Amino acid sequence: MFDGIVVGWNESESAATALDWAVKRAGDTPVRVVSIVPGQETGSDYLSPTSVESQVRVHLIDAAERMRARYPNARIDTEAIRGAVVDELIRLSVPGTLLVVGGTPRSERRTPFGWSVATRVAGARTPGTMAVVPSNVFIGVRSGVVVGIDGAAEGSAVLDVAIDEAQRLREELRLVHAWAPPPEWQDVFVPDLGFEDTLEDMRHGILRDAVAAASQISGLAIRESLISEAPAIAVSEAARGATELVIGNHSTRGVRRLQLGSVSHAALRDLHAPTIVVRS
């Protein structure tokens, strides 16, 4: 599904884990390890060997050599780029390429809140796919590819990525659809008898459509879950112990996103598994 993999490198433990995860999954897909040096390109000076850039390049080469020793068939290139970290990562995250960055689980972060580089890139208004890999990804036993199903028009792209990942990993595909009545209904709307049952039927229909699409893949093990809970919470909890989580980022925008947070933002803040975000 991906023609290339780009890994954001910054010498941190989480970046090292992300690089290992990316090279391990790459097979014969080329991997480009990129370190972004703050600053702007200034003509021929861009390639001048400043102390910072030369040190970055040495560390990049060392990281690539360690991966080549561990995965002899890996195709790895390195590059140092000047620019703003978030802007450059968004530029590198294009259709057909998987951008991989490291992430820190909430239990290991200094503060539980905030917008990390990963959440900012995931929230970009441009198409592309990125994976955020927690630093504890190789600890414990993991199983299953969880995919959040929300019924949006762009959801087919999310499901396609999840199916491809489940096939590649030979893992069970776990389709999760979650919903909860908005709290404002309690104050401004009193539903008719049976209205909530109708909504439940609609939600079952969304999940059935996704199951039907996935069931066309021969030999793919599928499990479905309809959860009556806020989607951000349900999807994040479903990812505990999963091999991967696949989600989209199209559910909320603008002020509403700042107030409530999108499912993808919540999942990346409460990172439990390598999380692939499909930006539409």
From TrEMBL:
InterPro entries given in the database record: Rossmann-like_a/b/a_fold, Universal_stress_UspA, UspA
Domain UspA: from-to ranges: 1-122, 145-279
CDD domains for this protein: USP-like
Family matches, as Gene3D superfamilies: HUPs (3.40.50.620)
Similarity comment: family membership: Belongs to the universal stress protein A family.
PANTHER family: STRESS RESPONSE PROTEIN NHAX, UNIVERSAL STRESS PROTEIN UP12
Name used for this protein in its record: Universal stress protein
Organism of provenance: Herbiconiux aconitum
Lineage start: Bacteria, Bacillati, Actinomycetota, Actinomycetes, Micrococcales
